[in-house]
Amino acid sequence: MEFDSFVLAAATDDLSQSVTGEYADAVEFRIDLADEPLEQLSEYDGGLPIIATNRVEWEGGEASDTPDRLEALRTATEHPRVEAIDVELSAVAAGDGLAVIEDARDRDVSVIVSTHDFEETPSGPEMQRLLSRAGEYGDVGKLAVTASTLDDVLQLLAVTRARTQTGQQVATMAMGAVGRHSRAVAPLYGSRIGYAPVDPDHATAPGQYDLETLRRLIEQLKAE
Ligand SMILES: O=C1C[C@@](O)(C(=O)O)C[C@@H](O)[C@@H]1O
Q1: Which residues does the Swiss-Prot or TrEMBL record annotate as the active site (predicted)?
Q2: Whole-prediction pTM value?
Q3: 224 class by beta-carbon count within 10 Å (0-12 exposed, 13-18 middle, 19+ buried)
């Protein structure tokens, strides 16, 4: 999957829910939230490419931190419709994420390396550092933070712009109510991926807009 332009991913734990390309460019399949995820993948006949995510508990997901978690992600890369995977920067730093990334590369599957902060927005320099480290391993470095003030959102946007200007592909968003508008605005500053739930009653992170709303907001704000 290419991230040279913005990709709106419809997040779901149920691949039988139909998602058309009307609002979404891809499906984010949350393996950690899904029942029988590998069976679901083999039965998938939707039209959109899949980003596979198996989010570990300490980054806001439900997958236990066992070798099975990354093994399931590795197996997902064998599925022809899986065109990208999401691996946490912390798993890469711990060493065990690297093998999954290598397998993905061998199969021409793109790699998103992510960090989530559910407590706060780190300082500007720290956000720069996290994204730049993520970019050493991933095609896209992703950072989801929690904003408590509008200044937090401004910092995140400034970092998004700065990293984009270096030529790095990044995806950024501020989770929660204060930062919600960043989901619509960050793409203007260079963010390459947005997330919205397929089922609005099952948001995969705080502050997400529903899919149609996010697509419309982004389209309306586009500078063209
Ligand atoms: O990492 C992300 C971003 C996200 O946490 C968000 O804030 O929209 C939603 C997750 O499904 C996805 O894996």
Answers
A1: 116 (proton donor/acceptor), 142 (schiff-base intermediate with substrate)
A2: 0.97
A3: exposed
